[in-house]
Amino acid sequence: MVNILIRYLGIKTKLLEPLSCAIKNVTPKNGTVLDLFAGSNTVGQYLLKDYCVLSNDYQKYSHIAAIALIESHKKYVIDSLLPDTIYNKYYEVNINSLKEIFRTPLLKEEELLSHIGETYYGQSFDEFVSFFDNSPYYGSETINKHVSFNDCLSFFEEENIQKYKKDPYIFPHMLFTTYYGNPYFSLSQCIEIDSLVYSLRMLLKTKSISEEQYNIYLSFLLYCLNLTVISVGDHFAQPQKIKPVSEKLDAPRDNVNLRERKKIIEKKRQTIKSLFIEKLYDYKKNYEYGNPLNKAFCKDYKELLASSIIEEYKVKTVYVDPPYTNAHYSRFYHIPETLVLYDYPDIEFFGRYRTDRFQSSFCIKRQAMDEFKTMLRLCYQKNLNMVISYSDTAQCILSIEEIESMCREYYGNNIIFDNAAHMYRNFGQKPNKVLAKEYIITCFTEMPEDDS
Prior knowledge:
Blueprint: H1 16-26, E1 32-35, H2 42-47, E2 52-56, H3 60-69, H4 75-79, H5 83-86, H6 89-101, H7 103-116, H8 123-133, H9 158-166, H10 175-179, H11 187-205, H12 211-228, H13 254-269, H14 272-286, E3 295-297, H15 301-306, H16 309-312, E4 315-320, H17 329-332, H18 334-341, E5 347-348, E6 353-354, H19 365-381, E7 385-392, H20 400-411, E8 415-425, E9 433-443
Parallel strand pairs: 1-2, 1-4, 2-3, 4-7
Antiparallel strand pairs: 5-6, 7-9, 8-9
């Protein structure tokens, strides 16, 4: 079973079988496969039954997901994962403190969500839109915000946040409450998230849980973010606005906008606690014990390929799913990254992006070809087989012809090209869904003997 904690751009769920076949062609049974840009860790999970799997990604949130999904955990660790461990005195003291500070807007939010019922237009809904559009967050002007926040606006201002930037462990934790309220999450959900993080940190600090347990619990919170975020495409790059409907509900886009309104309200009504506990039990029920050598890394790919880790783990094949377009993944997943770091970052724009977010050279036109060549060279020098997935769409920075030319520069004629066409979501473009040509390119040093 493939466990999805993060809805990822370009997630390879539709290509798992052809990718597995390509990897099998060049990798001996029980050999070691390195997933170099692991992202959601979907491919790595699919390979667990046949190989030792190493997962790598430069982003911290992907590393946390890989610890939960790729690394092998002993039975007593899985059995020890319990809701009561997390929903404890630390959680209660943090959530009660935040509920007191933000008492008036919390009550207003609850009242508005209740009054809407199942009617996604009219006066009650318009009142909710006013609350949704005028909720404060760190970095925004605190003037002309919703009146219910008047008594707590100082908590969103620079003076308060600077204290947390100097010491992110200050009580009460309130990063999500002050950074990522509406549109992204409801105020209530933010308070739950902050309180869960406080609980986890205190449990780790008091050695009530291990770092291993901490990381697994944190991965469940990543799952919660994905199911509750209000963002275009259900990622984190662009906060979603509530679009208007006509008075008589007879405009061409009214039905679409009403469906989106319903989706937003349904997400706002969800509780983090119910989703967290649901994922915890699902994880325990479906956890599969893999190779004890499976390992998650959080390194720049060049550092990893040049290191002794390749020899130490006897890596045979590297699976490569590099960024294809100029859309930096760090912009789409800046909130999960901040959850894991929990560091009260400097942010910018309406999307509240981290100013220190990672910029991949694969996403920069003038750098992408050199970066791809560097990757090929490092793999070839370590005598590694490669399985590369790359799309052939108008948005791709490199063409398939350029990819093929670079592969042949290092691996000569030891290359196999396969085409796996599938539909993908074309975010921000029309049509919304496009038939993509996804190429699977196998570069091999030598084919393994058939051990079947």
